[in-house]
Specification:
By secondary structure, this protein is of the alpha/beta class. 35% of the residues lie in helices and 22% in strands. Helix 9 packs across helix 10 and helix 16 packs across helix 17. The protein starts with a strand and ends with a helix.
């Protein structure tokens, strides 16, 4: 008799898990509390997978022997609580997929920078000649990739929600880019719960594995005291010189590992900004560990283009730069964006607040922002945080309105920056939809 697998959620992650389950001869049933997109229904139909939408058949789900839960479904959802009470194992899609591949896993997490670091790491390994695929919280689901082909290396972007559902997931190389308060609505508004979630990336690692982390991050340093890591520690830092790891000295990035040294001038990085120096250090540390040639690493870092929706230059109109940073869904990401601004900025901000504390942005807003356009259904918190800091604050209720207002406010030499510091679900499908609407509105000016 085949093992009964139930997949909760019919998006990218859930559909991928269902396809892999079918391939591995599980008896698969997929259930979505909402509606399933047409493209995913077509995949389910093609693979002859049973599914339901607009509600859960509790009795059938509770017959499962294993459940794969999509990361968007909180542990507090009634069906998940019932499964936990019944003692039925509930795992994440990355845990499920990892059970069916022998590939070497490089897993990257963090509050910010994980997409850029994962994309750059994949680029380095690919250009270095490794058989590699990029998956997880970016692009195709890990499970779908495992179902469709065999590769020797995976670079995985993993979110805290995905890590919450792991049991045996064990990356050979784990990267923790940083930790700042984010998604606290999912963690009982307790930062330590979120920190514990991030450190799960290393919980199954042994002394033969590697843990790459930001040694400048006080939350990570404190977290390492509470959550000891067994893997070999490789830090990166902008603030101190390290015996082993990656650091900056005399305007050069230096990576020292296993008595091998890689040096590259910061000025030749294609991606600029302090946060991107850190992303480059993390990615080049991974590349050094898997023995990519120094010349290849250097050439890749000189040529790598920004990730879409992350400080993405859209257009220059009337000497005004329009920048799409829609992926900035928390305050820390927006901090990096504002920090990198070199001209007076019209800042488009707002969306679904996840327990944000805007106080750390006040000095940057005071220094760099000439006007704020609030783009969200609930703007009170932003207005009270910055009302006394900028001369002009305007509320907009659609992206086209926001861009039109920005166009009127911005003068020659200014920058219009979309960096919302919030989730997108009040007015948009997701941050990609928000960023695409911004780019479209700019192109229509």
């Amino acid at each position: 008799m085949n093992v009964k697998l139930v997949v909760l959620g019919g998006g990218e992650s859930g559909t991928g898990a269902a396809v892999l389950g079918k391939k591995e001869n599980f008896e698969v049933f997929l259930s979505d509390f909402g509606q399933i997109e047409k493209k995913y229904k077509q995949v389910l139909l093609h693979h002859e997978i049973e599914w339901e939408e607009n509600g859960h058949s509790d009795a059938r789900i509770l017959q499962a022997e294993l459940v794969v839960k999509s990361p968007g479904i909180p542990d507090t959802a009634p069906i998940v609580r019932q499964l936990n009470e019944a003692g039925i194992p509930v795992i994440s899609e990355v845990e499920f997929a990892s059970r069916f591949t022998d590939a070497q896993l490089v897993a990257i997490t963090g509050s910010n920078g994980k997409t850029t670091t994962a994309t750059l790491t994949n680029y380095l390994l690919d250009k270095g000649g490794l058989d590699v695929s990029l998956a997880g919280n970016i692009g195709d689901s890990f499970a779908l990739d495992v179902a469709n082909r065999t590769v020797k290396n995976y670079v995985l972007e993993v979110s805290s929600f995905q890590l919450d559902g792991i049991a045996d997931f064990k990356p050979h190389i784990a990267v923790l880019t940083n930790i700042t308060p984010d998604h606290l609505d999912r963690y009982d508004y307790q930062l330590e719960n979120y920190v514990a979630s991030k450190f799960r990336i290393a919980m199954n690692q042994s002394a033969d594995d590697y843990f790459i982390y930001d040694a400048d991050d006080p939350i990570i340093r404190k977290g390492m005291e509470v959550h000891p890591v067994r893997a070999r520690l490789i830090p990166f830092s902008l603030e101190r010189i390290l015996e082993e790891g990656a650091y900056v000295k005399d305007e050069n990035i230096i990576v020292n590992i296993n008595n091998t040294q890689f040096i590259m001038p910061v000025a030749t990085l294609n991606l600029q900004g302090k946060h991107n120096i850190k992303n480059a250090m993390a990615a080049s540390t991974v590349a050094t560990l898997v023995q990519i040639r120094k010349e290849t690493i250097r050439a890749c870092l000189e040529n790598f283009q920004a990730v879409e929706h992350r400080l993405e230059k859209v257009l220059k109109i009337n000497q005004v730069n329009y920048i799409n940073d829609s992926k900035a869904t928390n305050v820390n990401a927006t901090f990096y964006a504002l920090e990198s601004m070199t001209s007076p900025t019209v800042w488009i901000v707002g969306g679904v607040d996840k327990g944000n504390d805007y106080s750390e942005l006040l000095p940057l807003v005071n220094e760099k922002v000439k006007a704020i356009i609030c783009l969200g259904l609930e703007n009170d918190k932003i207005i009270s945080a910055f009302g006394n800091v900028v001369d002009l604050m305007i509320e907009a209720h659609s992206m086209s309105d926001a861009v039109q207002v920005a166009y009127r406010l911005a003068k020659k030499g200014d920058t219009v920056l979309l960096s919302p510091a919030c989730a997108s679900f009040d007015l948009f499908e997701n941050y990609e939809d928000r960023g695409k609407q911004f780019k479209e509105a700019v192109r229509n000016l």
